[in-house]
Amino acid sequence: MSVRKLKPITPAQRFRVVNGFDAITTDKPEKSLLAPKKRSGGRNNTGKMTMRHLGGGHKKRYRIIDFKRNKFDVTAEVLSIEYDPNRTSFIALVQYKDGEKRYIIAQNGLQVGQTVTSGASAAPEVGNALPLSEIPLGTIISCIELRPEAGASIARSAGSFAQLMARDGKYATVKLPSGETRLILVTCIATIGAVSNSDHQLLVSGKAGRSRWLGRRPRTRPVAMNPVDHPMGGGEGRASGGHPRSRNGIPAKGFRTRSKTKASSKFIVERRKK
C-alpha cells in the first residue's frame, strides 16, 4: 500500500495526496452481490430535511458484505481485492468450495489465491474468523461482533484494529480502537488481522469539489450564524461565539452525555483516554 503526491498542475492538485491502490486487483464488482442504494438527500419520508450537509454525489451501488462469517468450516479462496465506495476499507471477493461467492472486509496482508475459513476449528491466521474463545491472547483482531450471531460491528473501517487482552469465564477483555477496554462474550466472532487500507488517513482531497462528489454538502460555521439559528451565533463584529456548544446548547469539548444508568456500562472496564 502506498500514497502518491501529485504534481501541482492545477491549484487543486497542489496539495492532493492520492491512494496508489496497489492492493486492488480488479475494477469490476461481482454483479450478483450488488444492490441498489437509494439516496435520500437527508430528507425523511415526508420530504423534511432531517440530516443536514447530505446530498448529491456520485451514484453508487451497495456491495452486500458478509459481516456474520457464518459459513463455518468451509474453505474459501480469495478471488480479488476490490474498492468499495460505501466504506473506507477494501473488500475481498471470496469463493467457497461449494461455489458460493461472498464479499468480506479485506484484512491487511490478504492476498489473491489465499484461502480463508471461519469457525472454531480455523487457524488463527489473517482473514480467518474465529470465536474469541479460540483466539490466542494478544492477537490483533478486527470486525468484532458485540452480540453473538449479530454480525461484525466493531473495528471495520480502514486501518482499524482491536487487541484481545484476556479471557475470564464467558467474557473476553478487548482493547477497542478508541482506547476503551471492554468485556465481550467469548462466543462472539472476530477476524484475525487489522483492516486493510491503513493509508486512508494520509489522503488529502485537494479541493471542495471532491467532498461534493462524496455526497457531502457545505457546512456553515456556527459563529457565522444569527442567534436564532445557533447559541454561538450573533454578536457585534466578529465575535468568538463563547463556549463551543452544539445547536441544542450541549457543550462540546469533553462534556459527558452518557447516561449514568446505561445497561452496558458494567461491560466497560476502562474508558478511553482523552
Shape: globular
Based on helices, strands and strand pairing, what is the structural class?
A: mainly beta
Element order: H for helix, E for strand: EEEEEEEEEEEEEEEEHE
Strand order across the largest sheet: 9-16-10-13-14-15-17
Number of helices: 1
- The CATH level-2 architecture is identified as Beta Barrel
Give the SSE layout:
Blueprint: E1 3-5, E2 17-19, E3 34-36, E4 61-63, E5 76-82, E6 91-96, E7 101-105, E8 115-116, E9 129-131, E10 140-142, E11 144-145, E12 152-154, E13 162-168, E14 171-175, E15 181-185, E16 189-192, H1 208-213, E17 268-270
Antiparallel strand pairs: 1-2, 3-4, 5-6, 5-8, 6-7, 9-16, 10-13, 10-16, 11-12, 13-14, 14-15, 15-17
Give a written overview of the molecule.
The protein has one domain (3-201, 266-270): OB fold (Dihydrolipoamide Acetyltransferase, E2P). The chain is built from one helix and 17 strands. The chain has one helix spanning 208-213; strands spanning 3-5, 17-19, 34-36, 61-63, 76-82, 91-96, 101-105, 115-116, 129-131, 140-142, 144-145, 152-154, 162-168, 171-175, 181-185, 189-192, 268-270. The strands form five sheets. The chain has a seven-stranded antiparallel β-sheet, with no helix packed on it. The protein has a four-stranded antiparallel β-sheet with strand order 7-6-5-8, with no helix packed on it.
